[in-house]
């Protein structure tokens, strides 16, 4: 078992959750993930059809805990945990719409990722995935921000405005309905789901290997990190040891992807604030990194560069030289942007103190990643639970205390420097010798020349493609540090070639659920910069 | 290594950054203007060297030999498709964009051939799984990324169009199984395969003559 798992009765869930959060020996202050699992054939006496699975994390103790609440099909109700962890809000809405779990006490238990005319619970096993539902205008989701009315307000008219789903300020397709008092947002609500593409449902009908191209499309600004995170999870379930060359390349290319992601995020945030030049400067190293990824895996954006057990292909012979060239390019560009903007008072006035959130509150909302580190909490998966080669290199976790847009921007700039540091050390070490993918015909396709020439390899080749990798039954949650926080894959296998359930813990999902809290009371222009600074990627948010 | 083992603090307040006197006086803006001026002058006088933009379609980006673009169906020396309609590519495809209909091959040594082989380019995600899956090296990819269609049905590309690019430009080959160091070995392997085929043909002909004679 990968982490302690408690099966909890729903009657005591709320009290237990509160104790787990506040207890001095437990201090599970972060609700990482909440999802449902459907077991249609499980009898009532074994707990019933559904499981609600909570993943908790204690930042001070660096420990994890999984809670499972079995629920029967006839009465899938359990208490809402919003009073304990605010992060539960959107997660509960998602579990409600996907499995029909009812969260008593939830203030707004409506559909989140699917639309209002949607019938049925799509992630249940008996749902017909080909079924289509048509949304008419009168059924549309009506967010209802409810501002507090006061007597003076009668003098002025309030105005409710839609931003998005298709709006130049919304990076992606989000909809924010804001009630304005002049320029000030008094109440707001966010609607998401315009880019929901059923990643989790689709992965249940594909083999383990076939899921990899889908993970590219989660956080498409740093798709390679998703590949690695997913492949690591499956490899851990299989017990496969990845060859050193692949681990080395994965670490380097993950850091390159992180640099790219931070370049996009900071570049576009600054564009939103009116500083266009940085965007161009930031995109030049990004262009080179895309070139590097393309020379390795044959695609720039959706690389699909990992395979379970290793990499898609051997690294090109000029990999190290090319990486070094990019390494020389990045620091001057970072320095240019720093000189242009970091001490620029116009940008500082726009960002310092705007949409500030304290570390404690951010943790309660389920934040991770650079945004959390900007609020003074130095939690980084690469440091707290090192994987790949992160514990063999010398680097630091940048932590700032402002909790505002400015510090989110600064943390990302500092992380680019740290990523450069990590890559430099790994490149100096040189490329490890050996294969790029594990030599196990049950996991990785045999080399082509063997598949053409040897009967045994040919059979393995056919078996792997027709039946897929046979992953032993079990469950596992494995986390990696994505570009905007802890990217977790919770996978359940019942044996056989296809996943039983895959749940992604998308880092920007809890972060974006805080959006209303961040923008209320600020101005409209603050909202736009806030959205950029959070680095919300629709592909990952809505899966 | 510098792994800190101290527990992570969770602060309850935010401490935003304070502006220094120089920052209050907007002085660092001058440094910023220097940066843009430096870029401007450098780009003005060394025009082509640092340009990152490409004037597509006149200029094109050079991609590596691993680029995953438009598919190619490879052919045998006699021009027929190497594909034996084993359906591995269609099975491996995560997007389910390959449609094959198999038929019995007129050649006795080849069991099947694809009567229909279609790829829906609008569904395809260019992941390269079909290339990995193919046991015959019958499908590979090219560097061609110009795929635009006026109608949906044009995006379903059939056998003839998939065969075409291979015949005119060898340098445009993209993602495929590569073993340059094993070229000679592969050549002998292929010639051996041809010998086996001709030997089998001879046996069939002998048998036919034998029955005729009897």
Descriptive overview:
The complex is a heterodimer of chains A (543) and B (214). Chain A has 543 residues and is of the alpha+beta class. Chain A has two domains: 100 residues, Beta Polymerase, domain 2, CATH 3.30.460.80; 344 residues, Cytochrome-c3 Hydrogenase, chain B (Orthogonal Bundle). Chain A contains 19 helices and 14 strands. In chain A, the strands form five sheets. In chain A, strands 1-4-3-2 form a four-stranded mixed β-sheet. In chain A, strands 7-8-9 form a three-stranded antiparallel β-sheet. The radius of gyration of chain A is 24 Å and the shape is globular. The model of chain A has no long low-confidence stretch (mean pLDDT 87). Chain B has 214 residues and is of the alpha+beta class. Chain B has a domain of 102 residues: Alpha-Beta Plaits, CATH 3.30.70. Chain B is built from six helices and five strands, in the order H-H-E-H-E-E-H-E-E-H-H. In chain B, the strands form two sheets. A three-stranded antiparallel β-sheet of chain B has the order 2-3-5. Chain B has a two-stranded antiparallel ribbon with strand order 1-4. The longest helix of chain B is centred in the C-terminal third of the chain and has 31 residues. The radius of gyration of chain B is 30 Å and the shape is elongated. At the A-B interface, helix 4, helix 7, helix 8, helix 9 and helix 10 of A face helix 1, helix 2, helix 3, helix 4 and helix 6 of B.
Distinctive features:
heterodimer, A: about 550 residues, alpha+beta, Beta Polymerase, domain 2, Cytochrome-c3 Hydrogenase, chain B, 2 domains, four-stranded mixed beta sheet, 19 helices, about 40% helix, globular, B: about 210 residues, Alpha-Beta Plaits, three-stranded antiparallel beta sheet, two-stranded antiparallel sheet, about 10% strand, elongated
